[in-house]
Design goal:
Blueprint (H helix, E strand, L loop, with lengths): L1 H10 L6 H8 L12 E6 L2 H6 L2 H15 L4 E6 L27 H12 L7 E5 L5 H14 L6 E5 H13 L3 H9 L3 E5 L9 H16 L3 E6 L10 H8 L2 E5 L4 H15 L5 H8 L6 H16 L7 H6 L15 H11 L4 H5 L5 H17 L4 H7 L6 H16 L3 H16 L1
Helix pairs in contact: 1-4, 5-6, 7-9, 11-13, 15-17, 15-20, 17-19, 18-19
Length: 428
């Protein structure tokens, strides 16, 4: 039967991705078959099995039946043990069940569900939206769901800027072929902030397109996130056409229902009860993103903790709570924020950016990371890189630590406000 099996695959080779073809070529087979045999085909990779489409399975079965002159049936399975993945970059709280839905993001949620069920079918999957409206949450939730289905798929997650830096480094070290080969072993490629491709050198762009094409041509899932539509990004025609042939979904600014729903949840989380008139006024404001709303509610909570009973929007503005949009907060660099924090705590900037775990350095470091998220335009990966950390999970942990201290330590928020005020004075 091995001869007929090999001939069957050779005849269908043009329709089978190379890595799937190699796996099928080495599958275990019985020596002979009966007229109506059921043949068990057991692959050693669940990921490969998941990518073999039903129509391809039927074609293989029919072609093999013809080769053997038999009405055999093929049953597909995998011998690979179920693996529990530990992904250092995956946020444990960014799951699908924690993502709040409304008409502003419903299409994105439905599209994410479709990608989870059939990775590679909607390709590439592109999430578009303003910063802070849930693109990263949805992507992490998608991976959580794929993992829960025990598919065994390998995921490569990066931001475009990090990938660009890595490609540049590998080119300099003349190890780019090995690097691309290692990426291609994965089943899903996720690139966040893809619109940062603008300004990349021609060489970097071509290397990325080579990686992109491998996943696209192999039927492996590509997931991209960006702040604007691919049609608004200056791309070569061949790459743009491939991206536009996939599934591009926009997450809109939060609607009134989502704003109210999140506000109710957040107030319950904080154990906070607001003046009804103030709450109604807040809900009528133009909120551009969920992150903006979260920041606003946190600031209201901080003032309440100080004993200030807020009753109106004007009162909010008197306390410089400018998340409402009338007086937009200036954007600072990570360097400016880090220098201000190190000056406030009277420590050296390089000590704070170092790897020491002494409390006198770790707390200021965490505060600087936290404020960089709040007051800079840099993403968490870039912030982590400034502090010489390998990935953005360090920044996520810093945020958690600072938020915990805000809620539990009396006077901590006063220090934060003092640092922010110092930042405004230093960089105003």
């Amino acid at each position: 039967m091995k001869k007929q099996w090999k001939k069957t695959l050779e005849e269908l080779k043009s329709e089978i991705p190379e890595d799937i073809f190699d796996s099928l070529l080495h599958v275990s087979l019985p020596r002979s078959v009966q007229q109506q045999s059921v043949i068990q085909l057991s692959l050693d990779s669940k990921a490969i099995l998941a990518r073999i489409r039903p129509e391809l399975k039927r074609k293989i079965e029919r072609r093999l039946q013809s080769q053997l002159d038999s009405r055999l049936k093929l049953q597909w399975s995998s011998t690979a043990p179920t693996r529990k993945f530990i992904r250092s970059w995956l946020h444990p709280e960014y799951t699908m069940d924690r993502f709040m839905g409304s008409s502003s993001n419903r299409m994105a949620m439905l599209a994410s569900d479709a990608v989870c069920l059939q990775p590679g079918k909607s390709n590439p999957f592109v999430l578009i939206g303003r910063p802070g409206n849930g693109k990263t949450h949805l992507i992490h939730g998608l991976v959580h769901t794929i993992d829960s289905m025990q598919s065994g798929l390998n995921v490569y997650y990066t931001t475009y800027r990090d990938l660009q830096d890595e490609i540049s480094q590998q080119l300099a070290q003349k190890t780019i072929l090995e690097f691309k080969k290692s990426i291609k072993k994965n089943d899903i490629l996720i690139v966040e902030h893809f619109d940062e491709i603008t300004g990349s050198s021609r060489t970097i762009t071509e290397e990325f397109f080579h990686i992109f094409n491998h996943f696209y041509d192999s039927g492996k899932q590509l997931i991209l996130s960006a702040h604007k539509s691919a049609s608004s990004i200056p791309l070569k025609e061949n790459m743009l056409s491939r991206i536009l042939s996939g599934l591009e979904v926009h997450i809109q600014d939060p609607d009134a229902y989502l704003i109210e729903k999140f506000t109710e949840w957040k107030l319950a989380q904080l154990g906070l009860s607001l003046n009804e008139a103030l709450l109604k006024s807040m809900l009528k404001q133009k909120i551009k993103s969920m992150r903006e709303l979260d920041t606003l509610l946190n600031r209201v909570y901080f003032m309440e903790q100080k004993g200030v009973k807020l009753k109106s929007l004007n009162q909010l503005r008197q306390f410089s709570l400018d998340a409402l949009g009338d007086n937009e907060e200036p954007i600072y660099t990570i360097q400016q924020i880090a220098e201000t924090v190190s000056e406030f705590y009277n420590i050296g900037l390089e000590d704070m950016r170092g790897s020491s775990r002494k409390a006198e350095f770790t707390l200021p470091r965490h505060i600087a990371m936290y404020l960089s998220v709040e007051y800079s335009n840099y993403n968490k990966t870039a912030i982590a890189r400034f502090f010489r950390k390998s990935d953005h999970t360090t920044v996520i942990n810093a945020e958690k630590n600072v938020n915990r201290r805000i809620q539990k330590e009396k006077g901590f928020q006063d220090n934060l406000q003092a640092i922010v005020q110092k930042l405004r004075i230093n960089c105003g």
